[in-house]
Amino acid sequence: AQSVTQLGSHVSVSEGALVLLRCNYSSSVPPYLFWYVQYPNQGLQLLLKYTSAATLVKGINGFEAEFKKSETSFHLTKPSAHMSDAAEYFCAVDTGRRALTFGSGTRLQVQP
Amino acid sequence: DTEVTQTPKHLVMGMTNKKSLKCEQHMGHRAMYWYKQKAKKPPELMFVYSYEKLSINESVPSRFSPECPNSSLLNLHLHALQPEDSALYLCASSSPPGQGNTEAFFGQGTRLTVV
């Protein structure tokens, strides 16, 4: 079964620093991959998605992710962190059923 | 309109109660989902409806009963729940496989507490 692994349950960066959240997938075929963000006591908001059209995907709020088949990775980056980026981030894979399987999540803290 | 609306936002129920969670979308999506999210955990799939028919049941206990009365509405009927069922219940919708965009849109969730 397809799955995703997020390395690092907690990441802390300073405001203005680079954000890097890691996600690796296990799949024998190129999957559909997603990054979602969840603020406390709220639902999930889509940041960006990979659907094989382009390997570098730009999303909302300045986030982007690069699909690297050779590394089976789909890491999320943002050049300069903002306090409002503090949240839980989930990488997810579409198992082909249009049903998502989520990684364990990474809590991003942004220090002033 | 890219919203998925869930009601109620919060629900406290006793173990002998019967309650229902509601979800509504007007994006024309024909796939709708229920996910369960425990504290500090990722969402876990419970049910999938495709074209108003149940297509996936992830071995969910029968005390959870889903219903899709039409293409815009999704309900989750709750009966005889246990305290360990306390969680955030998320509804989502998307285009079915083979049609349109792939992403799922999520509601804000219902925070359920079973006492």
Explain this structure to me?
- With 112 residues, chain A is mainly beta.
- Chain A has strands at residues 3-7, 10-14, 19-26, 32-38, 44-50, 56-58, 64-68, 73-78, 87-94, 100-102, 106-111.
- Helices cover 0% and strands 56% of the residues of chain A.
- Helix content of chain B is 0%, strand content 56%.
- Chain B has strands at residues 4-7, 10-13, 18-25, 31-37, 44-50, 53-57, 64-70, 73-79, 87-94, 105-106, 110-114.
- In chain B, the strands form two sheets. In chain B, strands 2, 4, 5, 6, 9, 10 and 11 form a seven-stranded mixed β-sheet that branches. In chain B, strands 1-3-8-7 form a four-stranded antiparallel β-sheet, with no helix packed on it.
- The interface between A and B is medium-sized, with 23 and 30 residues.
Q: Based on CA inertia axes, which overall geometry of chain B fits?
A: globular
Please outline the major beta sheet of chain B.
7 strands, mixed
Low-confidence stretches of chain B: none
Q: How much is the radius of gyration of chain A in Å?
A: 13 Å
- What is the alpha-carbon Rg of chain B in Å? 13 Å
Q: Are there runs of chain A of 5+ residues with pLDDT below 50, and where?
A: none
Q: Count the strands of chain B? A: 11
- The percent range for helix content of chain A is under 10%
Structural topology:
The complex is a heterodimer of chains A (112) and B (115).
Chain A lengths: L2 E5 L2 E5 L4 E8 L5 E7 L5 E7 L5 E3 L5 E5 L4 E6 L8 E8 L5 E3 L3 E6 L1
Parallel strand pairs in A: 2-11
Antiparallel strand pairs in A: 1-3, 3-8, 4-5, 4-9, 6-7, 7-8, 9-10, 9-11
Chain B lengths: L3 E4 L2 E4 L4 E8 L5 E7 L6 E7 L2 E5 L6 E7 L2 E7 L7 E8 L10 E2 L3 E5 L1
Parallel strand pairs in B: 2-11
Antiparallel strand pairs in B: 1-3, 3-8, 4-5, 4-9, 5-6, 7-8, 9-10, 9-11
